[in-house]
Amino acid sequence: MKLQQLSLFLENRPGQLRAPCEALGKAGIDLLTMTLADTTQFGILRFIVADPERARKVLEAEGMIVSVTEVVPIQVENKPGGLAAVLGAIEAAGLGVEYMYDFAARATPDKAAIIFRFEDPDRALEALKAAGVRILTSEELLGR
Amino acid sequence: MSAWNDPPGGFHPVSTPDYLPRPQLLAIQLQRLQSTVARAYDRVPLFRSRMEDRKLSPASIRSLADIGKLPFTVKADLRDTYPFGLFASPMEEIVRLHASSGTTGKPIVVAYTQSDLDVWTEVMVRSFAACGIHRGDVVQNAYGYGLFTGGLGMHYGGEALGATVIPISGGNTERQLMVMQDFGVTALCCTPSYFLYLLESAKEMKIDFSRLRVGVFGAEPWSEAMRDRIQAESGIRAHDIYGLSEIIGPGVGIECSHQHGLHVFEDHFYPEIIDPDTGEVLPDGGEGELVLTTLSKQAMPMIRYRTRDVTSIMAEPCECGRTLRRIRRIGRRSDDMLIIRGVNVFPSQVETALLRVEGTLPHYQIVLTREKGLDQMEVKVEVTPEVFSDEIRKLEALQQQLESTIENILGLRVKVTLVQPRSLPRSEGKARRVSDLRNV
What homologous superfamily does CATH list for A3-69? Predict the structure, then answer.
């Protein structure tokens, strides 16, 4: 199933990354995983939390701009070639990957979870299921 | 007269009007004002209708003081009548057009008959002569050649003076310095900030510019402190020159060897100082907005043009002997226009560009800095929820689109930086739109 990822615009200068993390910390919101995409001028912080709606409100109250993006968590065997196998299926399905990153708070040691952003998440979900790729549920991922 | 400046054996013959007895000058001014007003009234519908609204005719101008009855002309009038609405000569008599940027993307167009070009050349010759430049001098003209009036105005003035003009135009610092050294340049025309950059580069490249004697610097605001620095570091005499395309181009006013105020060529341009809020004419010495009326322009007479430049008139005689009154060095403007590398920029133009790209107006700030002697303009734009994308390439595309749209409207390359919401300063609810860090 699809997950809601939050994205934040950050200027490329000291202190910009701390502010949102601190706001979430004060609100008792745990960052399950995150990744920073950066250019010479600015960055985009992408992250996943258990309650994205509440996190969004906390950050917006701080004057930050938050966008919600749908991403797909895919289970990958935690061994050499595991990711390549999944990417092979994605390629075979003709899907475009915008970006991907590792889900840090993984539940089981022999399985990795990789978060994918596809151009068309719905089509990706369907195609990947048909190809036998294991899509994680939020319960599995977030341990609920 | 200063031995430093005017050539031995007296002044250049073309400078004679600089030394006219005041009564004679005033008589010339009145006669020329009357014919200029008549020409504008007869040939330019805008001037005629405005005078008729005030029940004025050319016969209403009986003395120089009567100029105060005439309506002002503003930059917007040139924009509203774009391109040729204020011309008082048929195209058959117009031999040159120049243009400068306006408030809305359309430039402002100015026209010259042959006699206008002759006047322009004359005031440029008188300007160079006042700076102590003469026949035998090698003049490197690093003002831009093209639609901008700076390049060609200086060029023809230098040639008519009998000096050797190098039409190198702007840019390419290494070539500028090579030419300066190898051609034995004695006088240089450029913006003062570019000269500071040339100076730095010359030291690094060990360029010998010891023959350089005079700089004619204008097209951007600069301060007395900057002149002191330039003169101390380079050993040259640095003269401030004033002008604007709407009136003629460079050569409206020039500093003589005493470098204390700019003599206005009053036989061709009539200066007044007004209170920018009430429009009331201020007595000599009062600080206010400079208003200029052309006294001999044919193609495009300007009646009481509001320059928005803030200065005051110094009526007391100058030690150089010129009878032309002086204006103090221009320190600021009475509107929000910025002058960046000689290009006129209004914050409203930037707003137009932002609106065009984003649909709504985000908070923004214009930041001006000076790097390598050149003014740099950066526009910081706050990211809004409407334009924020999770994808880097979409944000980069937005930034590039903002840059190209602003460049199209301003005619000036700018850097756009996307910044976080609420990160730009706001004062009393209104954003501080311009941060000028140029240290002039």
Answer: VC0802-like (3.30.2130.10)
Q: How would you label B71-106 residue by residue, b for 16+ Cβ within 10 Å and e otherwise?
A: bebbbebbbebbeeebbbbeeebbeebbbbbbbebe
For the question of an ipTM over 0.85, the answer is no
For residue range B359-392, list pLDDT tens digits in order.
Answer: 878 888 999 998 877 889 999 999 988 889 888 8
What is the three-class DSSP state of B340?
Answer: strand
Mind telling me how many Å the CA of B38 is from chain A's nearest CA?
Answer: 58
Query: Using CB atoms and an 8 Å cut-off, which of residues 72-101 of chain A contact chain B?
Result: 98
B348: tokens are: 């409203």
Class of domain B340-436: alpha beta
Please state the pTM of the whole predicted model.
0.73
| Residue of A41, A62, A67, A120 to mutate, testing the B interface (most B Cβ within 10 Å of its Cβ) | A41
Closest-CA distance of chain B to residue A44, Å = 7
A65 to B391: CB separation less than 8 angstroms, yes or no = no
- Is the CATH number 3.30.70.260 carried by domain A71-142? yes
User: For residue B399, which residues of chain A lie inside 8 Å, CB to CB?
Assistant: 41
Only one residue has tokens 């706050």, namely B382
Q: Which CATH class is domain B13-334?
A: alpha beta
**Tens digits of per-residue pLDDT, A49-100?**
999 999 999 999 988 889 999 999 999 988 899 899 999 999 998 998 999 9
Inter-chain contact B420–A37, Cβ cutoff 8 Å?
Answer: no
